[in-house]
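Field log, afternoon session.

UNIT: design team B
ACTIVITY: writing a sequence onto a fixed backbone
BACKBONE:
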């Protein structure tokens, strides 16, 4: 992975030491087994490690109850099949939204063991969100009978950029009350567990290539259309973070030069045309009762004329912005996420038209645009995947 915002309580080993290399190799074996059981020979081919190294690591992991082994045959020869003990470690995913908090607990087999979603007040301070996360997680672990010692780490996402140099929420977050707040440090102090944090769109992209149906895709864009609009990038099979961790700010691409003032201070940004906030404002005019994102989906599916027009305009604007991004990185797949996913082709069609109109013809013709199969869970499931990719599972007590 190019970069990640890791827990400060990581391994104290010197990065070039033998112990650090051993831990890295053990983690490679664990990650390879997340795809399913494998023989030691297959693990050697997958990881590039020697068969002797794999054999020694498997013994260590077996003694720690991280893996189970059983005799098998491979190409007519005796072999040892290795699989993860799926419940030997669990991870927690937390998705902080503008008005919600979603928490999921999962095992190594990517089975959801517990989950809950609660509402948060609009404009809530960071301490309020963290306190709610602590309460929800404590309840989930107790109700599911999960020992807190089995939790290898917590992944958390927030709708806004995070400066990976400091762990602080950067300017531009859809939660302005959180700007400058060090989510990593405060959440780790509150939960007393290793914590890994990232932008929610980045986590959405990660979920699509782990939990979702796009595990074989090397170049993918995940676009979350919500109160804000952000994109997560998978490039050459790895999440892309850029210089300081602030990437995918597609919501602030200028679409209309002399358009409305955006919260970022510029004019005519994509968010001023296509966010759910903008859709709500347009559809709540004329004395109509203020709608919600769920209302927008319901009215679109009911073929409400005004709603269809608003959604079509928004989709074309998103497609136009994506055309520029696609011209730059030539993705295989673009996945749309956020609260409007149940709208399906009503949103996908205008996005596709906008992409084809503004991308190089060959790119427009060969880029798949699809809706996330993970729905509103995408970001929180990506947070779980972040933990499993970076927590020191092999040495978890």
């Amino acid at each position: 992975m190019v970069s990640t915002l890791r827990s400060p309580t990581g391994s104290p080993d010197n990065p070039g030491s033998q112990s650090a290399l051993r831990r890295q190799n053990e983690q490679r074996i664990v990650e390879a087994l997340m795809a399913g059981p494998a023989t030691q020979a297959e693990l050697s081919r997958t990881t590039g490690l020697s068969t002797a190294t794999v054999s020694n690591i498997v013994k260590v992991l077996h003694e720690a109850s991280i893996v189970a082994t059983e005799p098998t045959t491979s190409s007519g020869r005796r072999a040892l099949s290795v699989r993860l003990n799926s419940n030997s470690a669990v991870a927690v995913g937390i998705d902080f939204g503008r008005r919600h908090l979603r928490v999921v607990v999962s095992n190594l087999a990517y089975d959801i063991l517990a989950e809950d979603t609660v509402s948060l007040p609009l404009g809530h301070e960071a301490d309020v969100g963290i306190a709610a996360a602590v309460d929800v997680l404590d309840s989930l672990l107790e109700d599911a009978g999960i020992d807190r010692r089995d939790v290898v780490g917590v992944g958390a996402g927030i709708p806004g950029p995070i400066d990976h140099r400091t762990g602080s929420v950067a300017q531009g977050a859809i939660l302005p009350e959180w700007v400058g707040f060090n989510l990593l440090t405060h959440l780790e102090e509150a939960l007393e567990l290793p914590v890994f944090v990232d932008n929610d769109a980045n986590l959405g992209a990660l979920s699509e290539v782990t939990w979702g149906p796009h595990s074989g895709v090397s170049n993918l864009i995940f676009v979350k259309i919500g109160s804000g609009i952000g994109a997560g990038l998978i490039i050459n099979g790895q999440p892309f973070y850029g210089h300081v961790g602030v990437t995918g700010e597609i919501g602030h691409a200028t679409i209309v030069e002399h358009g409305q003032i955006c919260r970022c201070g510029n004019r005519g940004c994509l968010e001023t045309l296509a966010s759910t906030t903008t859709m709500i404002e347009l559809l709540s005019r004329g004395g109509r009762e203020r709608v919600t994102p769920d209302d927008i989906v319901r009215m679109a599916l009911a073929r409400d004329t005004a709603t269809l027009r608003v959604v079509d305009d928004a989709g074309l604007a998103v497609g136009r912005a994506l055309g520029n991004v696609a011209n730059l990185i030539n993705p295989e797949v673009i996945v749309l996420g956020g609260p409007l996913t149940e709208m399906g082709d009503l949103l996908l069609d205008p996005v596709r038209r906008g992409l084809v109109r503004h991308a190089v013809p060959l790119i427009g013709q060969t880029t798949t645009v699809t809706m996330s199969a993970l729905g509103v869970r995408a970001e929180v499931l990506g947070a779980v995947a972040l933990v499993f990719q970076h927590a020191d599972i092999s040495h978890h007590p």
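LOG NOTE: The CA atoms of residues 204 and 379 lie 4 Å apart.
NEXT ACTIVITY: expression trials, pending approval
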